[in-house]
Automatic annotation (TrEMBL):
Native source species: Phototrophicus methaneseepsis
Active site: 257, 314
Name assigned to this protein: Citrate synthase
InterPro entries reported in the protein's UniProt record: Citrate_synth-like_lrg_a-sub, Citrate_synth-like_sm_a-sub, Citrate_synthase, Citrate_synthase_AS, Citrate_synthase_bac-typ, Citrate_synthase_sf
PANTHER family, per the entry: CITRATE SYNTHASE, CITRATE SYNTHASE 2-RELATED
Family classification: Belongs to the citrate synthase family.
Keywords noted in UniProt: Transferase
GO terms for MF: citrate synthase activity
Catalytic activity entry: oxaloacetate + acetyl-CoA + H2O = citrate + CoA + H(+)
UniProt pathway: Carbohydrate metabolism; tricarboxylic acid cycle
GO cellular component: cytosol
């Protein structure tokens, strides 16, 4: 059978495989995760329940959840070589995402590469340990061992600071982690699926995905989005600063989306989670953020009319993570701590039923060049 060949730059609008994991509906501004509208599950579930849901296509019972949490908790420790790598990376002040990628590669040492489900557990369990350990090394602080009696989210915050976090911070972090765990064929998930589609191993898939997530057009946006608010500083500065950026042809981080042409539904869930942190003295900062958002939307309409550029998840990611006290350098790594749940689910799904992902390229080069020996070349 002759297949129609058609070029779609950036694969825009192309359906590359089937999934039961999540459906971002760009026209209606709705995100369904394994059957649940995002706003009906993200603010209530624990992160462990969300991962279980993606891996097993149903929520766990209480007994299953307890077992699953214990299985993850016992896989939090890193292979010793991972710590050596993190120390070497910290000595060079490598970005956290790069350190995460380097250390994640060592997880093959503690799991049988052929056991994709076990490797998925190791990856999800170990990411917070890698990120928190590296962060403490960067600060010149002693490492904090994971605590098996704390939840995934609480343990991450504990390993960063040494303090058991309060319930509000844990709830806000879980809401964030649940909100960004999966999102159709975003670039990093697609990367994981391409790797899994070759029947390469699970750790290879997540390591590749980290590389894709790092870029500023994908998971690298929330830090710069908050930096823009800091740079603006006061409401009067919003208009001139943002206008100057657009005049220079810069992109505003935290705005625009390939799929959502109406408001990103994740932004609303995160805004609701963030609000509680910005009361009292911090209310002014929240008001500034909302003002910056509105000015940005107005100016995007002026400079990019008709492109339907709306606030995306990264803008409110910045607000939630700032609200619970994480530094901007940890925003993208914390995104990875969540999204690894989705990457592994997609890899498992693809192992079960997918074909090798192998699109075509439109060749635009020469076709009739003749070989010239090196001695005769100009
Ligand atoms: N600021 C200014 N202009 C923009 C922006 C922006 N944030 N986003 C898109 N545009 C313009 C772009 O310059 C282009 O203009 P023109 O038609 O004159 O060439 C037009 O809008 C369409 O943009 P595009 O690059 O063709 O759209 P895309 O679907 O390829 O890109 C995007 C989507 C998210 C990469 C882009 O909107 C962007 O760069 N946003 C800023 C970075 C960001 O916030 N990334 C996080 C995305 S959400 C989470 C995730 O996926 O990880």
């Amino acid at each position: 059978m002759e297949l129609e060949t058609i070029m779609r730059p950036g694969l825009q609008g192309v359906i590359a495989a089937e999934t039961r994991l999540s459906r971002p509906d760009g026209q209606r501004g709705v995100l369904v995760i394994a059957g649940y509208w995002l706003e009906r599950i993200a603010p209530y579930a624990t992160f462990e329940e969300m991962v279980y849901l993606l891996w097993h296509d149903r929520l766990p019972t209480a007994v299953e959840l307890a077992t699953f949490k214990a299985e993850l908790a016992e896989k939090r420790a890193l292979p010793p070589i991972a710590e050596d790598i993190l120390r070497a990376a910290a000595a060079q002040k490598q970005p956290v995402m790069d350190a995460l990628r380097m250390a994640a590669g060592t997880l093959n040492l503690v799991v049988d590469a052929a056991d994709a489900q076990a490797a998925a557990q190791v990856a999800v369990a170990a990411f917070p340990t890698i990120v928190a350990s590296y962060w403490r090394l960067l600060q010149g602080e002693a490492l904090i061992a994971p605590r098996a009696d704390l939840s995934h989210a609480a343990n991450y915050l504990y390993m960063l600071t040494g303090d058991v976090p309060d319930a509000d911070a844990v709830r806000a972090l879980e809401t964030y982690l649940n909100t960004v765990i999966d999102h159709g064929f975003n670039a990093s998930t697609f990367t994981a699926r391409v790797i899994a589609s070759t029947q390469s191993d699970m750790i290879a898939a997540v390591v590749g995905a980290i590389g894709a997530l790092k870029g500023p057009l994908h998971g690298g946006a929330p830090g710069p989005a908050l930096d823009m608010v800091f740079e603006i500083g006061t409401p009067e500065n919003a208009e001139p600063v943002i206008r100057a950026k657009l005049e220079r042809g810069e992109r505003l981080m935290g705005f625009g989306h390939r799929v959502y042409k109406v408001r990103d539904p994740r932004a609303d869930v995160l805004n609701a989670a963030a609000e509680r942190f910005f009361v009292g003295e911090r209310a002014e900062f929240y008001a500034l953020v909302r003002h910056v958002e509105q000015v940005a939307l107005d100016l995007l309409e002026e400079y990019k009319p008709g492109r339907s550029l709306k606030t995306n998840v990264e803008f409110y990611t910045a607000l939630v993570l700032h609200g619970i006290g994480l530094p901007t350098d940890l925003f993208s790594p914390t995104f990875a701590i969540s999204r690894v749940g989705g990457w592994t689910a997609h890899a498992l799904e693809h192992y079960a039923s997918g074909r090798i992902i192998r699109p075509l390229a439109q060749y635009t080069g020469e076709t009739e060049r003749r070989w010239v020996p090196i001695t005769e070349r100009d």
